Amino acid sequence: MTEPLTIYGDPGSGNCLKVKWVAAHLGIPALWHDVDVPRGGTRTPEFLALNPAGRVPVVVFPDGAVLSESNAIIAYLAEGSPLIPEAALARARMLQWMFWEQYSHEPYIAVRRYQLHYLKRPPEDLDSKLAVRGADALQLMDGTLARSAYIAGDALTLADVALVAYTRMAHEGGFDLGAYPAVRAWIGRVEAGLGIGAYV
Q1: Gene3D superfamilies from the entry (predicted)?
Q2: Fewest CB atoms less than 10 Å from the CB: which of 2, 12, 69, 94?
Q3: Does 1 have pLDDT greater than 70?
Q4: How far is the C-alpha of 116 from the C-alpha of 43, rounded, in Å?
């Protein structure tokens, strides 16, 4: 039996769940190690020895190698699997959406969720651009998903994994997913494709 890798992550983090889902979907043995981010779990000397950047997720492989950054981890885990297209242009389109997720989606939707859901800050105290740019991201996704079953085409890829993680939690950031019917339908398809339960 293959020795498992260890995932250090916060169970409330979409970025961490990406790694957990891909490992499970591909049958990669993995042990989950809880890191309580709000209580300073990423600032301890032990954690900083693993990742000096002080962020989750982090994966430690059986040989001791360490890898961080969620999209880098899932790309490594999914190498050679159907989650990464073989054709160069299709693979590049997948990467396009994964880069967009970290630059134009997560910084607004995930950050607004964190501030409202975990820090319990009132909406009027938040930077207004979080709501505006988060809604812009969801609108772009909705238009794209009205034309294709998945975000980068007609097959489930890592782009869907990357984007579904915080999109399905967006209501906790004050975003009404009812306004984005194609996104809502896509969330269900991705959850079913990955074998994960619906987030309510």
Answers
A1: 1.20.1050.10, Glutaredoxin
A2: 2
A3: no
A4: 22
